[in-house]
Amino acid sequence: MDIRTRDHQGIVVFDIDGEVTISTMPQPTLHQLIKDQLERGKRDILLDLKKVDFIDSFGIGELLASYVSTQNLGGKLKLCHVSRKLFLLFQITRLVTVLEIYEDCDRALKSFGTP
Amino acid sequence: MHAFLRRLRVDVRPDESRAAAFLFLYFFLITLTFSVIKTVKESLQISVNPRSWWVFDLGTAVLIGFAVAVNTRLLNRLPRRKYSSLTLGFSAGCLALFWYAFDLYHRRIYPFPVLLVFVQSHLNLFIYAFSFWSDVFIAMTITQFWIAVNDIFHPHQAKRLVGFLVTGGLLGGIAGSAIAWSLPKLVAPHYLLLVCPAILLLMIAVVGLVHGEGERLRGGTEAGSRPAGAGVGFLESLRTVRGDRYLRILAGVLASAVLVGQIINYQFKFVVKAQGWNDATRTSFLAMFFSGVLVVSTLFHLFATGRVLRRFGIRVALLVAPVVLILGTVPVFFLTIVTAAAVPTAAGLLWASLLRGADKLFDTTMSQSVRELLYIPIPAEIKYKAKVLIDMSVNKFALGFGAVLYWTLYRALSFAMKTPEEQVRTLGVFVVAFALLWMGLIWIIHDEYLGKVKADLARKWQDGHKVVDANVDIGLTRRIVDTIQSRERSATLYVMNLYGLVQKEKLTAELMEAIGLRGEELKARSMDALLGVDGEPAFQGIEDIITDKEFDSVVREVMALPVYKDVMEKQIGDLVTGKSASEVARMEAAKALGLMEPTPAVIRELGRLLRDPSPEVLNYALHSAAAHLRKEHVPAIVDLLENPMTRQLAQDTLAAYGPRVEDVLKKRLQDREGPPEVRRAIPDVLARLGNQKAADALVAELVAGDEVLEAGLIEALYKVRANHPQASFKKRRIAAAALSLARRNAEDYLAAAEAGAGREPGPERQAAIDLRTKLLFDLLTLIAPPEDVVKAYQNILRGTKKSVDYSLELLDNILNGDLKELLFPLIESLPPEERCRRLRKPLRAPRPR
User: Fold this and answer.
1) Pairwise CA distance, residues A99 & B384, whole Å
2) What is the pLDDT of residue B184?
3) CA-CA distances (angstroms) from residue B485 to A48, B405, B480, B521, B826?
4) Which residues on neighbouring strands pair with residue A7, listed in sequence order?
5) Cβ contact (<8 Å) for A25 and B645?
6) Which residues of A touch B798 (CB under 8 A)?
C-alpha cells in the first residue's frame, strides 16, 4: 500500500494505492499522516481511493479514527473514487451515514467550498 | 482616530473607532444639557411653596406614562435617525419658548400687556410645565442614546466600549455643572436655557454622524428604517415586559435599585437636616457634595468600571452596589453616629455622605453600564418596546412606590415622633431588605442573561465520536469485514468467523447479503463484485447449516468433550511453539482459542499468540482475548499498545476488561521509563472506562505535568466529561492545569510574534497554538458547562461576527479573570501588536526594545 500526499488549493489530498489492511499499512499509518496534517493547521482532507481494492477491519478503524480527529477540529474528511464494491461495503456497514463519499474527486474538491 | 483612542487606552478596534468617538460626543452633549436643565429645574422648584412639591413628583410620574406611549409609537414608526433629530429640534424650540416665558416674568414693559400680566400672575404654571417637560426630555434623550448604542454594537463590543461612553456622559455632567455654577454669576439663571438649544442643534449633527457610522458598520442598512411592529404603543410595551420573565426581572433590578437609592436619600436628608444649618450653608454643602460625587464617579469610572467588568464579569459588577450599601448601612444599627445626646455628629454626616455618595457613584458608573449590557441579548423587536417602558416608567413607578412607602411609614408608625437616630435606623431596615431583594434579582438575571446569550449560539459541528457511535456498529462492522476478508485466506477461518458472527448477531437477510451467503440476484450482483468472486458463492447452503440450532449444539458438545480439548490443545500448542506454522494457521489457532473453553492450556497458548510478530495473527488473538478477559493476558495486551497496527484493537480489548485493569493501566501510565507510545495510548482506555477512579488517575497525571501525555490526557478527560456526566473533577486542580496550559500557549504566541517583529506567527507555529487552544477548551469543559464551552469554541472558529461576539460574552461570564487575560487576546479578533500588548501584562513580560 502506498500513500501520497498533495495539496489542492488548501485541501490535502491523499492518493492511496493498494489494499488498506493491517498487513499492508505503512508506517506512519494513514491516521497518523492525517493527524500530522491537522497539526499543521489543515482542516480539509480528501482520500482518493481510486486504486484501493479492499479495506479490512484495521483499515476501517483507521478511516473512522481519521474522521473523528478531523471532525473534532471542525474539519472535513471526504472520500472520492470509491469503487462499487467498497461503496457496497460502506453501505452495508452504515459507514455511508458518517463518511462523505463522492464518485469523482472534482466534485469532492468543489464540495469543500460549500458549507 | 483609532490611534488617538488607543493612546487614551480605550479598548477599541479600528472599524469601531469613529462610531465610538461619535457616541462619546453624543452622550457628552446629552449629559451637559441634562446638568444645565436639571439645575435650572431644581432652582425653580425650590422657589415654589414646599406644600406643592408633591405636584412635581406626581405630575412627572403621570406624564412619563404618556411620554412613553408617544415615544414607543414614534420609535416604531420612524427611522431612528429621523426620530432622534426631530425630538432634539422640538426640544430646542420648547427651551426657547420656556426662556421667553421666564424672561417675560422679569420684564416691566411689553407690547402685549395682557400676556405680560398672565405670565407674571401664573408663573407657577410655567414652572410646573418646565419641570414636567425637562423630566420627559431627560428620559427620552438618554433612552434614544442607549438604543443607538444597541443598534450599532454587538454585546462584546458594547461591553468593551460602554465604559468609554459613560465616561463621556460623566465629563458632560461635569462640564454642565461648571456652566450652571458659573453663568448665573453673570446673567439671570433662566439664561442658562438659551445655552441648551444651541447644544441641541449641535447634537442633531452628531446624531447624523452616529447613525451614518452605524449604517456603515451594518453594511448600509439604517436602524429602524423598517418599522418594527408599527402601531405598537405603551400597552404593547407593557404586555411585552409582562410576558417576558427576563424583562420582568430586569425591571425588578432597576426598581429595587431605585428604591434603595431613594431610601438612602431620605436617610441622607435626615442627617443633613439634623445639622441645623441655615439655607446658605446647607445649599453650599449640597453643591459641594454633588460635584464631589460626580468627580469621584468619573475617576472611579475611568479606573475601575472597565477593569471590574473585564476581570469579574457582569454578576460581580452588579452585586458591588447592594453589597457595599448593606455593609455601609449596618453600622447605624449598632453605633450612635447620627446624633450624640441630641447633638449632630461629624461622623453621622460623614457616614450619610459616604453612603449616599456610594449609591450615586455605583448607580452612575458600574450599575448603569451593566444594566445597559443586560438589554443587548434581547431581540431587537422586543428590546425597543421594553427598553422604553423600563427606562422611562419603571424608575418613576419605583420612586412613586418609595414615596408611598415613606408616607405610610410616617403615618402608621409614629415615625415623626422618633429621633433622627431612630428614623435613620428604621429606614436602614428598609435599605437592607430592598438591597437583599436587589441582590436576589441580580443573581437570577445573570443566569437568565447567560441563557439569552446562549440561545443565539448553536453547535457548528457534532462531536466525531458521538457521530460514529450513533451511526455505526463498529464491532459488527469489524466482524463483517473480517469474515469477508477471511474468505480469501482460508475456508476454516471463514467458517469460524461466520460461526462467531452468528453467535453475536442474528443472521438477518441484510447480514447474509453482506457476507455473501444468499444466492438472490441482488447478492449475486453485489457480493460477487464485492468479493471479486465469479459465479456461485463457494459456500452455497451454509447459512441453513450454520444457523441451525442443532448444529450449534453439536459444536458446543464437541468443544466440551475432554478428548477434543486434549487433542486441540496439543495441536494448537505444537502449532504455536513450532516454527514452521504458517501465518494463516496461526490466525486459525488464534481464532479457535477464542471459541474454546478457557482451560489453562487455552489461556497459555493464547498468551503466546498475543506475542506473535504478525499483526493479522495479533488481530485474531486480541479478539479471542476479549472473549475470555483473563488477567494473565493484560500485560501482553498493554504491550501491544506500542504497535500502531494493534493499538486500536488493544485499546478496545482493554476497555472490554472494565475496571479490573485500572490499576495496571494507572501503573503503566505513571511509569516514566516505559515506552511513550504505550503511555500515550492508555488515557483513551481510561476514558472509555469512564468511572471516577479512571477520571482521578487522568487528572493526577495531568497535574503531574508530563507534557508528553498532556494532549492525550486532556482528550481523554474531555471524553469522560462528554460520555460520563456523573464523573466529578476537582475544579481547583483542573483550573490550575488550564491556567498553566493557557500561560504556555500565550508565551508561545508572544515569543513567536516578537521574534517576527510583531507579525502573526508562521502557519505551523500558529497551528500548534490553535491546537493548544482547542485542548484548553476541552479542559474547560471539566470546570464550566461543557455544552457552553463547546458552542463558544465552535462559534469563535466558524461563527458569524455576531455569534463570535456572543461566544466571547458567554466565556467572559463563565471563566475566571486570570484565565481570560491569557486566553482572550488569542481568540479575539485583534491585530498582532494588540495581542502582544494584552498578553505582556498577565505574563509580566517586558516590552521588547
Assistant:
1) 46
2) 67
3) 22, 86, 9, 22, 49
4) A12
5) yes
6) 74
Q: How far is B302 from chain A (nearest CA, A)?
A: 41
Distance between CA B563 and CA B571 in Å, rounded?
12
pTM across the whole model = 0.72
Q: How far apart are CA B162 and CA B305, in angstroms?
A: 9
Instruction: Determine the Cα–Cα distance for residues B281 and B656; give it in Å rounded to an integer.
Output: 86
B15-232 against B250-379+417-455: fold identical = yes
pLDDT at residue B302 is higher than 50: yes
pLDDT tens for B130-184 read 988 888 888 888 888 888 888 888 777 777 788 788 888 888 888 887 777 777 6
| B positions 647-666 inside 8 Å of A (CB) | 648-649
Under a CB-based contact definition with an 8 Å cutoff, are residues B802 and B303 in contact?
no
Residue B783: name the closest of B720, B713, B735, B711 by CA.
B735
Total of domains in chain A: 1
- Domain covering B250-379+417-455 assigned CATH 3.30.200 in the classification: no
What is the ipTM metric for this complex? Answer: 0.91
Q: Give residues with Cβ within 8 angstroms of B173, minimum separation 6.
A: B31, B32, B34, B35, B294
Rounded to a whole number of angstroms, the distance from the CA of A3 to the nearest CA of chain B is 16
In A, which residues are within 8 Å of B460 by CB distance?
A: 74
The C-alpha cell at B59 is 405630575
Express the helix, strand and coil content of chain A in percent, nearest 5 each: 40, 30, 35
Cell of B788: 457552553
Question: Where residue B519 falls among pLDDT bands split at 50, 70, 90?
Answer: very low
Give me the residue spans of the domains in chain B: 15-232, 250-379+417-455, 733-843
- B340-343 contacts at long range (C-beta below 8 A, 24 or more positions apart): B342/B419
Q: Mind telling me how many Å the CA of B84 is from chain A's nearest CA?
A: 41
Residues B9 and B306: beta-carbon distance below 8 Å: no
DSSP letter, residue A10: T
In angstroms, the Cα distances linking A83 to A54, A79, B534 are: 9, 11, 17
The 8-class DSSP code of residue B845 comes to P
Q: What is the assigned CATH class of domain B15-232?
A: mainly alpha
* Residue contact A64–B468, C-beta within 8 A: yes
- The pLDDT, as a whole number, for residue B564 is 86
Distance CA B777, CA B810 (A): 13
The residue in chain B having the minimum alpha-carbon distance to the alpha carbon of residue A61 is B648
Looking at beta carbons, which residues of chain A come within 8 Å of B770?
41
Length of chain B: 849
CA distance A36 to chain B (A): 11
A21 touches chain B (CB under 8 A): yes
User: Pairing mode, if any, of strands B339-340 and B343-344?
Assistant: antiparallel
User: How many residues are listed for chain A in this entry?
Assistant: 115
Higher pLDDT, B71 or B127: B127
A24: domain CATH number is 3.30.750.24
Q: Where do runs of H (alpha helix) occur along B335-419?
A: 346-362, 368-375, 380-389, 395-412
Q: pLDDT tens digits, residue range B321-351?
A: 999 999 999 988 887 776 666 667 788 889 9
Residue in this structure with the C-alpha cell 468467523, named with its chain if needed: B497
CB count, 10 Å around CB of B195?
Answer: 19
CB of B719 within 8 A of CB of B688? yes
Sheet with A100-102: strands ordered across? A2-8, A11-17, A44-51, A76-80, A100-102
Q: CA B687 to CA A56: how far, in whole Å?
A: 26
CA distances from B133 to B40, B91, B234 (A): 12, 9, 19
Helices then strands, counting H and E runs in chain B, come out as: 41, 2
List all residues 6 or more positions away from B217 whose beta carbon is below 8 Å from its beta carbon: B15, B16, B19, B152
Q: Determine the residue among B471, B483, B530, B790 to mutate to test chain A binding: the one whose Cβ has the most chain A Cβ atoms within 10 Å.
A: B530
C-alpha cell at B383: 428590546
